[in-house]
Design a protein that fits this description.
Layout lengths: L12 H13 L4 H9 L7 H19 L4 H15 L3 E3 L11 H8 L4 E4 L2 E3 L7 H8 L4 E2 L1 H7 L10 E6 L5 H6 E6 L1 H4 L3 E5 L5 E5 L1 H10 L6 H13 L5 H10 L3 H11 L2
Parallel strand pairs: 5-6
Antiparallel strand pairs: 1-3, 2-3, 4-5, 7-8
Helix pairs in contact: 1-3, 7-10, 10-11, 10-12, 12-13
């Protein structure tokens, strides 16, 4: 009896990695990204190149194996999830023109688990709530005491998320889930960096200097004792950058307030 040839749908690991990084870094609506891809912009941005490459790989597989589309799509979803630490948002399949019905089918078969609207988890992975939250709310940046928690600069465990978003960002469910600070576009990106969650996944948060500016700027909404302790710990830290702190404070229009409060603890 002739042995059936096993078809390999494995996608190159670099193509997958670049695609996942591109999707995770894009904050614009995916419909806007798809429009840009269809316009065939030249030269194409690196992020769009990675998405375009991945899309072409899926198209080629579908052409080569026209009767195996379901298997190709479900395998692709699994490979994307594995590359993205076991998690997937519906945004990740939109540019590939993979219908959400495949997610429903995989959920029914227990291949994936739906943990919130538009967010799915591999069954052999524990949920990283910080990571899944930011996968869903792409413009939310962990800030204030929540970000300082990542740097071990507060004793206060963040039972509720604290995030900063642009003034133009209006998603009601964000306000239901956490403390939200709205800022103007000109200061929204100041001090943005990537940090590791306790589970080892990367999320966007503000750096220490931006956090110090934020807790002083918003001290009316903060625990005053925690604010004092965090500022004192920052001043005592070896990796502080007072020049950067001063620059941020100036750009945020709170230079006098920040320098006065920091000066109290500066030795």
């Amino acid at each position: 009896m002739k042995k059936e040839k096993k078809i390999n749908y494995k996608i190159d690991s670099n193509v997958l990695k670049n695609y996942v990084e591109a999707i995770n870094s894009i904050k614009e609506p995916m419909s806007q990204i798809k429009e840009q891809l269809n316009e065939s912009l030249q030269p194409m941005q690196e992020q769009l190149k990675s998405i375009h490459t991945m899309s072409n790989v899926i198209k080629e597989l579908s052409i080569n194996y026209p009767n195996e589309q379901s298997k190709i799509f479900t395998d692709t979803i699994k490979q994307i999830m594995n590359t993205n630490n076991g998690m997937l948002s519906t945004r990740m399949i939109e540019p590939l023109n993979i219908s959400r019905q495949y997610l429903s089918m995989m959920e029914k078969n227990k291949d994936i688990e739906k943990i919130s609207r538009g967010i799915y988890l591999s069954p052999n992975v524990f949920e990283d709530s910080y990571f899944s939250f930011q996968q869903k709310y792409k413009k939310a940046i962990f800030s204030h005491m929540n970000a300082l928690y990542f740097y071990d600069m507060t004793e206060e465990f963040p039972y509720n998320y604290t995030v900063t978003v642009p003034q133009s960002y209006h998603v009601d469910t964000v306000n239901e889930k956490c403390n939200v600070f709205y800022v103007s576009d000109d200061i929204y990106e100041i001090g943005v960096t990537e940090v590791e969650t306790p589970s080892g996944n990367k999320v966007r948060a503000y750096d220490k200097e931006r956090c110090i500016c934020d807790i002083i700027r918003s001290k009316g909404r903060m625990d005053p004792e925690q604010v004092k302790k965090s500022i004192k710990q920052y001043i005592q830290s070896k990796d502080k950058n007072v020049g950067k702190l001063s620059d941020y404070a100036k750009r945020m229009g709170i230079s006098k307030k920040v320098m006065e409060m920091v000066g109290i603890y500066y030795e």
